[in-house]
């Protein structure tokens, strides 16, 4: 085993509640509420009921863990599966920039399901979640940009992040964490190919990542052994799925850098790659007092990853695809001033003005933007006005990023809007859930989170 | 979608029982019995009980599908999971040479579990299994040798082969098979890294491949969509996991070439990469009348894949590792004339003469052997005798290969020995299972297979 994998597994085994700074614990609660809203928002939306039916068919009729969208009980495996599918549907879950990992949608479903199964407390859930974030983010950074060009990092690395969270709930020692990474890493899968067909794999990816990670942890607890060097070995993850892996990323400032706190909340309900340009356009329009009709064309200056992920969608056919259409997102921003769930579902495909605006938008690779990515997500747009002027818009930190984060009031507001969208819970129930999450570290059991 | 993926999915959708030649149906029954023996042989052996406990913890207490090693009932998902782990433990399951895929251990567990769940007949099971073999073998050939250097093809391609078998039981049409390949392919995972630590991932790989493939099929039946070009697309399996993919392999002589019938039975209880040399050494020793003590050294002339897979094991620490030790296998052959399960468990680690013989064995890359691999697995050994002679042994088709296959009597004998090894069933029960398998195409239900 390399020094970096050893350092990471030693950190994970040794991590205690007391070591975690108060702002990191508070941010974990913020992220948990944000995740819960994303999961509940998808109730009733395709393809989530498919996963619910699968759990009913293959799983037990009852169990210690809860499926959020329908309130049913099941075993931890199926709760993790369905909840992880649910929380990655409406594109409102969190993102860590430099790893391009959505940690919440894989870490929290596995951690909550296992914590309910094992009778763990809120504090134990928080420590386990921090462990999952810290490991997952570093493994994502380790695998690098070449990995993300083909593989959906939240799917591949997600299995390891979820596994680590469950392993922490099980009090794994350093050797068990090594076996765990081996068994989770050898299950790591998820390809971007589905994107060009707007297929349902994104939810399958997060569902499987959380469930596979949980499976790895439960089997490790039983005594299953795994490869000792799955990340860096000659036939390991980096060897098979990356060309620019950086081993030192695995142990980057463990215990002093809290990568969890670098995670961004999503403000717009679209693919994160559209957010910098959306914020830059909005800032420019507000500054110059422009309306949508005043704009003749928009050139967004972006990083290569945005072109890779968004470049496939020309004319979106579904709401989900619209969230990956730069032109559609900027059309909603220009016409409605925001691109939330309601705007996507009510206007993205049906308002012909959005389609017209979409045709005015292009993407071009910008060396400066690309050079700072993925550490920073700079927003740069060039607008040609109807009256012939060329204007520039720029933001250096999108809304929701750590330096421009959401307050607890804004998070509560977002949570209530997400729950209202699906009507998965009443307003009163939403309020009770908010109260429960803000008291997370006092809870002895997590049965109330359902 | 490319013409090759389209041709493959059209073939799968259109395949009928009547189209399959009688010798292929009979060979499918042979392969099924051979698989059943491999699954039962592992009862009680680590790590199979771990998977059984996982199924008990996460699955329902009862269900339509059967777990072979313990006779318990569960849902199809967990039966596929445990049975697929079971059948890849004792290294006695089948292998298709040019794809380097072990089809039985992934196709049959998924197909049998789903057939029991869906109330299908023996004929339907046979057609589904043929579909799984034909698709899996071609996809393995398509991904090529570069894939196998890092990825365990039986794990990655196994998910697609298992999915296809279950999809055929569900009477999928061409479009559903396309979605199915998308959802199975994006779950494809399994790295060789575990091999150098003799870790338990091999069973995890087959367990997950069968279970993931089955999951993909059940979700596709519910309406889950998948990438339309998961095999050949720019962000698909070949793009991410191969450097020498050949798309034409996907549709190679569909309907006229029956790849299933090219599958080899394992005669020795070791990694298939050791078999050509083992047979060549045995032939040479019999021809020359040599005993183990007459041999000073053995140089095995092998293909690169053998060095990649076997080269990691120097001094085996476990029986499983011994099956990947060329020197140990040849030591058993030289000392006992065979390398079956009993020889491995009774002598491979404990007989010091085996260890001494192991030290006399080396591997070297042979251009001729490497050039014909993986279509042919040539066995070439060079022996230096204690009295200073240099002798050459060669076989062109290992025992168990299609041109040197096992008779039904030999298959029954192998099955009985496998079942006796674990005592999973009595001799009478073993005989009844043999009778059931030979009547497979007359069975209306598959409940008797348990």
TrEMBL record, chains A, B:
Q: Name one Pfam family in it.
A: MmgE_PrpD_C
Q: Which residues cross the membrane?
A: none
Q: Can you give the residue ranges of the MmgE/PrpD N-terminal domain?
A: 7-247
Which Gene3D superfamilies does UniProt cross-reference here?
2-methylcitrate dehydratase PrpD (3.30.1330.120)
Annotated ranges, domain MmgE/PrpD C-terminal: 268-439
Under the heading InterPro entries, the entry gives: MmgE/PrpD_sf, MmgE/PrpD_sf_1, MmgE/PrpD_sf_2, MmgE_PrpD, MmgE_PrpD_C, MmgE_PrpD_N
The entry assigns this protein to a family as follows: Belongs to the PrpD family.
User: What protein am I looking at?
Assistant: MmgE/PrpD family protein
Q: Which organism is it from?
A: Stutzerimonas decontaminans
